[in-house]
Write a structure and sequence with these properties.
Immunoglobulin-like, single chain, mainly beta, about 625 residues, 6-stranded mixed sheet, 5 domains, flat, 3 helices
Length: about 625
């Protein structure tokens, strides 16, 4: 048998028996070509593979099993520790809840219970309980709670042990209109043991306002011509059994509304009205007047809220809305004053009113009547000039009929006309108290005919037009000069002499009549040859002088309405020095130029001012100077 045949049999599973025989027998060297006796001996015969594992293999397997067991043991220990740590804390096992009334009446005192629990083995540290609430909820700060921002309170709980729990009570009042839904949320912030990051558990509850003891109702015209005068009537009442303090009414006006006046007057801007104490069962009324402009068929809503202010937040007890629809009337009317539709005016001004009217319908209209109501305490009706019509001093209304204007008997389609009259603003504005400020002159022109039908029962559209004028504050400036002055004593000859210094004291005294002002200042320019000595009384007065230009400015800043009328005004004194020239002999020397008192009116937004003439050595207010002491004398 050749070597290749033996190899085939070694890899042939069916020849295993033959292979064993071959392996156990002696090879015949002559059977293999080229083989000699020296190549094969009886001991060189092939043997079958030894069965079973060798000793080295068994040792390796034993060592591997031990190593694997050690690894598995370490892994089990690590997994056990990890599992133990993981099972010690799970954020889902930290719970917080808040419970309390689900419905309430606005203003009721409510009690909420906040419960928290740690269902973990691990303790929680740095625990802080926070309760967030809406604008209409006012909590009572107690039991260690602290205010955190405007809409939350917080309480430091410190530590909660494993499987520990607790509860906290929070009281407060809820304010809101009927149907208002509020959400209160409790949040528990904490650090678990062996953790560096923070976790938060949350819970919340809802509250619905089912009623309010303070009710409010607003009434408005259902329809109105654009630019027409409008009155909003607000009724309010405390229907509960508890008195309320600090009650306010807040109006949110529609776009296109221009505020004119209200009764009672507004307390904050044009939309907040202070009621104050409102006893159980007490009621009241508010009338807001103005004009409303808009496009045809546009809906104009107004919202009125009643409530209290606490911590700078308006807490609403109730609110109500009303709507007015803008329509196009048949008769139209408009007016201007001094050629414009709305400006600010000054005390002493003459106001020229021009009223235009027209029938824009398709048919003529009979017995047209035009009225103009112009009611203001700052007008001088004795100076009113009318070319036609009649003025009723009681109602402050001018009426024009067909006997005054012939075409009003039958106003043809497309026909119209113009009416003019004028009235003066009082020179002396009546200011008797702190409420006498921010005066508005309102004029309402109306036109009507019995041929104009009512669109809805009780809602006839009478075309009207309202123009409002704000009265600028009147500024008052008095300039006086003295040689004999107690605040700043003077020196030098009287009458003044050529080549010799003489000093004089100038007094500026100011008053602000009817509106708050800002940026107020008084200024003048000293003539060449007149020098500011630097002496001022009071000494802390902000008076600046430019010696190059001679400008002297007193910076005042803000002044309240009525300052100098209802309360003492502001006054300063300053000293100037003159050294007359020979050319000034037998003349009176100018001590100052014209003095100007100027400011910005906060109410009207206008720049206002008043000016006085220059001040000379003719000091009639200093009665100790004789009549011959005013003119310069030669040395």
């Amino acid at each position: 048998m050749t070597i290749s045949e033996i190899q085939k049999k070694l890899y042939n599973k069916e020849a295993d028996k033959d292979l064993s025989k071959i392996a156990s027998s002696q090879f015949d060297p002559t059977a293999v070509p080229g083989a000699g006796k020296e190549q094969f001996t009886k001991t060189d015969a092939w043997q079958a593979p030894e069965k079973g594992l060798k000793a080295e293999q068994k040792k390796a397997i034993k060592f591997g099993a031990i190593a694997l067991g050690g690894i598995l043991l370490v892994a089990l220990i690590v997994m056990g520790v990890f599992y133990f740590m993981q099972s010690a804390f799970n954020e889902d096992r930290v719970k917080v809840s808040i419970s309390g009334p689900e419905t309430a009446q606005s203003g009721d005192i409510l009690t909420y219970e906040i419960q928290y629990k740690n269902n973990n083995r691990a303790k929680l540290s740095g625990v802080v309980l926070r309760v967030g609430y809406p604008e209409g909820f006012k909590p009572e700060i107690e039991q260690g709670f602290r205010q955190e921002g405007q809409m939350a309170v917080a309480l430091d709980l410190g530590e909660i042990k494993g499987f520990g729990s607790g509860k906290i009570t929070l009281k407060g009042k809820a304010y809101g209109p009927k149907g208002n839904l509020m959400l209160l949320e409790a949040g528990l912030t904490y650090n678990p043991a062996s953790y560096t990051n923070k976790f938060v558990a949350k819970g919340q509850t809802g509250l619905t306002i089912i009623s309010s003891p303070i009710v409010v109702e607003v009434m408005a015209p259902l329809v109105l011509a654009s630019g027409g005068a409008i009155d909003y009537l607000v009724d309010y009442k405390n229907t509960g059994s508890t008195d309320y303090e600090g009650v306010k009414i807040k109006a949110e006006y529609p776009a296109g509304f221009t505020f004119s006046q209200s009764e009672p007057k507004s307390s904050e801007g044009e939309g907040v009205f202070y009621v104050g104490h409102l006893s159980a069962g007490q009621e009241g009324k508010l009338v807001i007047s103005g004009k409303l402009e808009g496009s045809r068929d546009e809906i104009k809503p107004i919202k009125i809220s009643v409530g209290e202010t606490s911590g700078g937040i308006f807490l609403v007890h109730n609110d109500e809305r009303a709507e007015t629809k803008i329509v196009s009337p048949t008769l139209v009317i408009s007016q201007t004053v001094n050629g414009v539709r709305g400006v600010s005016v000054n005390a002493g001004d003459t106001l020229l009113f021009t009223i235009t009217y027209k029938n824009e319908g398709n048919i003529g209209l009979r017995d047209v009547i035009i009225t103009e109501k112009i009611d203001s305490t700052v007008l001088d009706y004795s100076k009113m000039e009318l070319s036609s019509g009649a003025f009723d001093g009681n109602s402050k209304t001018i009426t024009w009929k067909s006997k005054d204007i012939p075409n009003l008997r039958f106003l043809e389609a497309g026909q119209g006309g113009t009416i003019r009259f004028d009235v003066r603003v009082k020179e002396i504005i009546p200011v008797a108290g702190a409420s006498d400020k921010n005066f508005i002159i309102s004029s309402i022109a109306k036109i009507d005919s019995p041929d104009v039908p009512a669109i809805l029962a009780g809602n006839k559209v009478i075309s009207s037009n309202q123009v409002d004028f704000k009265l600028n504050s009147k500024l008052v400036l008095a300039v006086k000069g003295y040689y004999n002055d107690t605040s700043l004593p003077n020196s030098g000859p009287i009458p003044p002499q050529v080549g010799t210094d003489t000093t004089y004291t100038i007094h500026w005294k100011i008053a602000n009549v009817s509106n708050d002002i800002t940026g107020a200042k008084v200024e003048t320019v000293l003539p060449t040859g007149v020098v500011f000595t630097g002496k001022v009384y009071p000494e802390n007065t902000k008076l600046t002088y430019n010696d190059r230009s001679g400008s002297l400015i007193w910076e005042i800043g803000t002044m309240a309405a009525g300052e100098g009328v209802l309360s003492p005004g502001k006054e300063i004194s300053f000293q100037v020095k003159v050294n007359p020239a020979p050319s000034q002999v037998d003349t009176m020397v100018d001590l100052t130029g014209a003095s100007i008192f100027s400011a910005k009116d906060i109410f009207t937004g206008s720049d206002v001012s008043t000016t006085t003439e220059k001040k000379t050595t003719f000091l009639s207010e200093d009665t100790k100077i004789l009549s011959n002491g005013y003119k310069v004398q030669a040395k």
